């Protein structure tokens, strides 16, 4: 007798012999036992999961000579004929080779005739999605109202291609891919019954390559038996499949976790001699990282089915959870980018180098995180100092005060007579609109003079407010300030570093603004509670932002009234007004943006100024590094204040505090946003 392949020899003949698909078996068994049979069934799923097998078992159940039940006898003539494919009333149709409407009509012409041997005439249409639209149309009426002796069993791997009219006429059962553990268990049972020696790890390699298909797994097992001369060994299976031993993946991952760069790259070079599947190897490392992460999360949850339990537990003890997560993410990114790499080996090696090069940082940016202090020590000398809610050191406070107190008399002739007429109104607005100043003052804020409170809110005047050109007035400077014969003399004055230059106002960079927006929250001794009454204050910028002179306030207010759009509006946001002489306005812009400010932009800015002020204006812009206040810097500072206030409010919320205390939680930086639509910091 000729050899019969395992996939055919071990094809189930009863529902009890099926591996997996319990959700389908339960529904079919109940329907058969209660004799509640539908006239059309649709089985969907990937190849080799049991669609055709289920259909044939169902045909046995309804035509068995012992009666309709979920347990056919398997010994009667009908059951034997169905098992051997000789039953006359089971018509199997390959839709891939019978796609024409004429062939379907010819088949349907025989529907009216009663079955020859069995109770039902069963039409088993495999790969039904291959039928043409005309064939589906011809089938619809019969599929909806077939004769009582007809049952339709449809099978497909692509149900999306079926018309909705066909789907609505069938009971649909989706067969799932089989898990690797079930495949390994069944393969071990088959090989034990066949008397073939095998290794468990070899079966895992086969199950992994089968990708959820039992038929593929049995076919690969047949191939492995032939390759290994009657045995299924791990080394033979790895060579046959072109994969890499799992032990190699473990060594690679251990080298990555241990920072042994030379060992990892040498091992990678050795693996390359066998021309492996590099994506398969990277997938194996990702799976190992997943198992280690699971063990770190719940100790003892990882079993020893793959023979790596000891390795997983050792790595879980030696590696930090953050490091394992980083390795997993790099592996996923490497798999995603593998098709775009010059060669698969290069793609794998670059992923391996990333794993060796990058180290997860401690959560310095997480509010209330326990690792904040340690992270600040590991971040290096070049990093920004961590923002905290503790009082500033005396030296720091003095430095901030000195930086904020530099005079701007050279560019503001009336700086010696500050305008105090607006102080009361400004103070009222400050109390109403700035909860950061009135409600959440930290010890660091105590070092700022009270007079500073006035000007900060003054600069936030609405752009829709009417522009009063007389308040504050822009007085004409003394003729001796600059030589009229030298129109560029004012640039030299601005460049002089004689201690009497403009008020020093730091224009915050993006990292600075991000740091300012961080609320200082410290953990209690228990590690859970968060001190939410301390709010980070941008000490290096807030005093300077509030100690603005009349010229700066005038420019900030005027900018909001200018009809500017697009690139011109963006560039003008970075202009600092230093002087106004007659109809000429003198500005400074930093070199980073000055290269983009052209003569056309000057003309358009002059036109906008003329339109708002009602008089002809000229504009002179000097490109120089400066520390003067600009609309952009003021906007960044205000945004940082709103962000800090929003985070303070969130941390004071009772529900948030309960969550943090109960689950040892942290507030992720950037996850809180103030309500910029209303402009109220109390909306988050």
Question: Care to describe what's here?
Answer:
By secondary structure, this protein is α/β, with parallel strands linked by helices. It folds into four domains: 6-174, 3-Layer(aba) Sandwich (Rossmann fold), CATH 3.40.50; 180-241, Helicase, Ruva Protein, domain 3 (Orthogonal Bundle); 246-357, Zinc Finger, Delta Prime, domain 3 (Up-down Bundle), CATH 1.20.272; 394-485 and 497-562 and 629-663, no CATH class. It has 31 helices and eight strands. It has helices at 6-9, 22-33, 51-63, 77-84, 101-108, 133-144, 164-167, 180-194, 200-210, 214-227, 234-241, 246-257, 261-272, 278-297, 309-318, 321-337, 344-357, 372-378, 394-404, 423-433, 435-438, 452-458, 489-495, 510-516, 542-546, 550-559, 566-572, 591-594, 599-613, 631-652, 654-663, and strands spanning 40-44, 90-94, 121-126, 150-156, 171-174, 576-581, 584-589, 618-623. Strands 2-3-4-1-5 form a five-stranded parallel sheet, covered by helices on one side. Strands 6-7-8 form a three-stranded mixed sheet, sandwiched between helices. Strand 2, helix 5 and strand 3 form a beta-alpha-beta unit. Helix 13 (261-272) packs antiparallel against helix 17. The radius of gyration is 39 Å and the shape is elongated.
For the structure shown, list the relevant keywords.
684 residues, alpha/beta, Rossmann fold, Helicase, Ruva Protein, domain 3, Zinc Finger, Delta Prime, domain 3, 4 domains, 3-stranded mixed beta sheet, 31 helices, 47% helix, disordered C terminus
Task: Tell me the layout of helices and strands.
Blueprint: H1 6-9, H2 22-33, E1 40-44, H3 51-63, H4 77-84, E2 90-94, H5 101-108, E3 121-126, H6 133-144, E4 150-156, H7 164-167, E5 171-174, H8 180-194, H9 200-210, H10 214-227, H11 234-241, H12 246-257, H13 261-272, H14 278-297, H15 309-318, H16 321-337, H17 344-357, H18 372-378, H19 394-404, H20 423-433, H21 435-438, H22 452-458, H23 489-495, H24 510-516, H25 542-546, H26 550-559, H27 566-572, E6 576-581, E7 584-589, H28 591-594, H29 599-613, E8 618-623, H30 631-652, H31 654-663
Parallel strand pairs: 1-4, 1-5, 2-3, 3-4, 7-8
Antiparallel strand pairs: 6-7
Helix pairs in contact: 3-4, 5-6, 8-9, 9-10, 9-11, 12-13, 12-14, 13-17, 14-15, 14-16, 14-17, 16-17, 20-22
GO molecular function: ATP binding; DNA binding; DNA-directed DNA polymerase activity; metal ion binding
Protein name: DNA polymerase III subunit gamma/tau
Family: Belongs to the DnaX/STICHEL family.
